[in-house]
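Handout, page 2. Input:
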Amino acid sequence: MRKVICLSFIGIMVLSGCTKPEEESLGSGYNSEEATKRGDVVFTPSGIKNFNRFQDFLDNMKIHQKDKVRITAYTKEGDPIFSDLDYDGKNIKYSHDSSNDKFGGDPSVFTNTCSKVITKETVDNGIDYHLSDCVKAPEDAIVELGEEPYLFTKNK
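Output:
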């Protein structure tokens, strides 16, 4: 009986050591420090990190060089929202994943194919970045205004 208990305990310890802690997996445990280390462009309520990586992506688009970038925005509660841009030299495959946003309504993954990133100046001297010339209009688009998928706003 003692051997069975000992072996069971050892088995449980081995199995628990093989699972990834929640902090290491993508999703709710994917904190801004981890995202920054992985090279994501990171937006938190307190500011932006790795914006130069997004600028590199735009520069590569200008010369039709393939590139990928992940934009990770964090809600005020700390939940990540992922926007992945995968440029193939001609088009951008876009994926917007809000499935980890616990307080944001219906979590979803939206995908699209677009050909441009455009900028619009905001009233408070910021710059909005949007995708343009997309195959599908976003569900919340205001068609009359030509609203395209929004990426983020950068203050000057």
